[in-house]
Amino acid sequence: MGGAGTTNPDRQVPSGVGFTAVQNGMDYITVAVQQLTWRPGRQRLPNPGPQQFKYAVLHLQAAAEILLKAMLLQEDWTQIFRNPEEATREALESGVFQSCNRKDSIKRLKRGGVDIGRAEQDLDKLAAFRNPLQHFGLPAPIAEIRALTASVLDFLVSFVDETLIPRLGGQDAGDAEFDLANIVDKLPELKEFITVRMNRLQGEGLRKLEIRTVVCPFCKQWALVVDNEGPGCLCCTRYKRNWGENLPADYAASVLGVTTQFGENSRIAVACPRCGDRALVPDVVVAAARATPRRFCFSCGSTDET
Ligand SMILES: [Zn+2]
Ligand SMILES: [Zn+2]
Question: What residue ranges do the domains of the chain occupy?
Answer without folding.
Answer: 9-197, 205-305
